[in-house]
Amino acid sequence: xxxxxxxxxxxxxxxxxxxxxxxxxxxxxxxxxxxxxxxxxxxxxxxxxxxxxxxxxxxxxxxxxxxxxxxxxxxxxxxxxxxxxxxxxxxxxxxxxxxxxxxxxxxxxxxxxxxxxxxxxxxxxxxxxxxxxxxxxxxxxxxxxxxxxxxxxxxxxxxxxxxxxxxxxxxxxxxxxxxxxxxxxxxxxxxxxxxxxxxxxxxxxxxxxxxxxxxxxxxxxxxxxxxxxxxxxxxxxxxxxxxxxxxxxx
Length: 250
Ligand code: 13P
Description:
Layout: E1 5-9, H1 16-29, E2 36-40, H2 46-52, E3 58-62, H3 79-84, E4 89-92, H4 95-100, H5 105-117, E5 121-126, H6 130-134, H7 138-149, H8 155-158, E6 161-165, H9 179-196, H10 199-204, E7 206-210, H11 218-222, E8 229-232, H12 239-248
C-alpha cells in the first residue's frame, strides 16, 4: 500500500508566532517518525512555518490555491506563489472549502491542475455528507469526487497526489468513522484509482482517513489495510496527541 503520511490541517488557527511555537513543540516529538509528517498552515503562517521546519523532516502544506498563475482574483493565492516560496504540499477540496466557499468538483480539478503544474504535492479531500451515507451512495459520491479531481492527471503526476477520505459527518464532530467504515471507503477509492490507472498505481497511492482522528483512535484506524495515514484537524494542534498519531503510523 501507499507510503504513510500524517498531515495536520490547522484550518484557520495560529498566528505566525504561534505557528512557530507549535512546530517547535512538535519537532522533537516526531524526529524518529517512520512516516511523512506534514503541517497544513494558514497562508500567512507559511514563511514562519517553512523557516521553523528547517532541519526536520516535517513538510509544510498550504490549505488551498487558485488555478490561475496570477491576475485579477482579489484575495486569492496561486500555486505559482506557493511554488516560489518552496511550499511542498497543498490541501485541495476540503469539505469546508466545498461547503462554505463554493468549491466544486470542477474547481477542485482546476486547482489540482495548477498545483501539479507548479510541482506541488496535493492532498485531495473527498467525502460524503451524512444524508448521502444514509442514502447508501457514499461509494458513488467519493468515486465522482475522485474521478473529476483526477481528470487530466497522468499516472506520473499521480505520484504527487495523496487522497484523504474525510466523511463530512466525522469532521470536527468527535464522531469518528469506525475502522471498518474508513477502510471500506478507502478501499473503494483505491479501486477507483485502479480503474482510472492500473493496479500498481492503486497500490502505490497514499489514502488517508480524516475526521476526528485522535491519539486514542489513530492506531486502530491506521492499522486498516487500506488506510495509509491521516489528515488531522483538532488533534494536530496538540503536540503530544499529534505525535502519538505519527507514532501510530507504521
Ligand atoms: P478533525 O480532526 O478536527 O475532525 O478535522 C478533520 C479535518 O477536517 C482534517 O482536514
